[in-house]
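[agent] plan:
  1. take the single chain provided in the ticket
  2. run structure prediction with default settings
  3. attach C-alpha cells to the ticket
  4. add a short note for the reviewer (M.T.)
[agent] executing step 1
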Amino acid sequence: MTPPYLLAIDNGSQSTKVTIFDARGRPVASARRRLKPYDTSVPGHAIHPGDDIWDSIRDACRAAMAGFAGDPADIVAVGLCTIRFCRALLTADGSLAEPVLSWMDERVSRPYQPGNPRVRYVTTSSGYITHRLTGQFVDAAANYQGVWPIDQDTAAWSGDPAAYAATGMARDMLFDLVPPGGRLGAVTPAAAGATGIPAGLPVYATANDKAVEALGSGLQEDGGVLLSLGTYIAAMTIGSSSRSTGDGYWVNFAARPGKYLYESTGIRRGMWTVSWYRTMLEGSHGQEPPAGAARLEDILNAEASELTPGSNGLLTLPDWLAPGHAAWRRGALLGFDGSQGRAHIYRSILEGIALTMANHTAAMEQALGRRLSPVLVSGGGSSSDLMMQIVAGVFDRPARRTAVNDAAGLGAAICAAVGHGVYPDWDQATAAMVAVGDEFTPDTKAARAYQKINTVYAALTSFTDPLFRSMAERLEGLERA
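[agent] step 2 finished; step 3 output follows
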C-alpha cells in the first residue's frame, strides 16, 4: 500500500517553501519562492507589494507538485502555515482591498482604523490564503496574536463588546475560527488550476508560524527551549497556562489545542542580518557561484571557525530593526581596531545573535523559575555548524538542531496528519514524524570565554541607548528645522 503524503505550505517573511512529506515526516519534494521586498516608502509602513504572498505560494506549490515523483492522488491533505501578525483587508468577495500589511508595519500593533470603503473583512495572512485556496471565510484560531478581539483562554472570539471596541473590529468583519488540525475547507477547482494541487484536497489549520515551527521541531512541555533562527529570532518553550508569570516572556497559542507557546523577547531582523552581510560582500546582484565553486557563506563559516570567541574584540548589537518599545534604537558593530577582517564581522554577527538570545532566554527562565535545556535550534541558521557550536558555547548547554530544515513545514504537515486522521493524536503524530538532528556539546573553554564576554555584552545597551536616543532626537530636530 502506498503511504499517504501531506503537502505543507510554510509562508515566511522572506520566502514561501512548499514541501511534500511522507507519513514519517520525510520530505520527498519541495520548492521555495522568494517574496518581493516590502514597500517601506512611508516611514513606519511595511507592505507586501501587490499580491505577493499568494503569488509566492502559488508558484512554490506548482514547482513542488512538478517535482513530486509520486501519484498526486496519494497526497491526502494540505497543512497551511503563514506569517503571523499580518493584517489583510478584504472586499466582500474575499479579494484584497489593498496589499497585506506585514508584521513589521506599525499599524498592525494599533486598532483597525476604517478608511477604505471597499473593506468588508479584516483577517490574517492565513485567513486570506485560506479563502484563496478554499473559497471559505474561515481561519486558524491559533494564528491570532496581537490586536484582535480573541479570548486567550478559549481561542474563540471574545464575548466582551469592549474587546471589539478596543480593536476597532466588528464581529461580522471577522472570519469564523477553527483550532489547529481543524478543517478549513477543500481546494477549489480555481485554486487547483493556479497551484497544481489536486482539487478537493482538504486544507487543515495550523497556528502562528513560530508555534508551527515549534511543533515541527519536537518542542514539548518537558522543559526544553527552541531557538528559532529566522528573520525574526525568538526563544520558545511550551506550557499550559494562558497567562504570563513575569515580564521575561509573553504567551501565545501553541500548535496543539489547549497548549501555549511561551516566547522570549526576540530579534526583529535576525538571520536577515547574515543575508544582508553576505549580499554586501557579493555585490548588489548576489549571483549564485558557478557550479563546483564554494558558496560565500561556506567560506565565511570556514574562516570564522578558525577564530576564537569574541571575534578579536568586535561586538555586534543586532537591532537593525528597532523594537517597538525603543523606536530610536539601532544596530551597532563596536570594537573595530583595524585588526578584524570579514570573518571577524561575520562571526561577531553570529555571536551577537547568540548572546542576545541567551540573555533573553535567561529573562524568560527567571520569570518561569526554571532552567530550560536542551536548546533545540531551527531555521536556516541551524544549518551552520559554526552557529550551532556558538549557540552551545554561549548558552553553555547542549544544542540540538532539527533533522528537517523546514520545521514549520513539518509542523504544518503534522497538523494536517492529525486533522485528516493519518495519526489518531498529536503525540503519535509527533513521535512518528519528528526526528532528532545533530547535537553539539559546549566546549568548556569557549563557554568560559563567552561567560566573560557577556559581562560586557549584557550591559552594552545601557551605554548605546542614550547615544541612539540622543541621535534620534537631534536628527528629528534637524528635519523640523
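[agent] step 4 note for reviewer: The chain has a mean pLDDT of 93.
[agent] ticket updated
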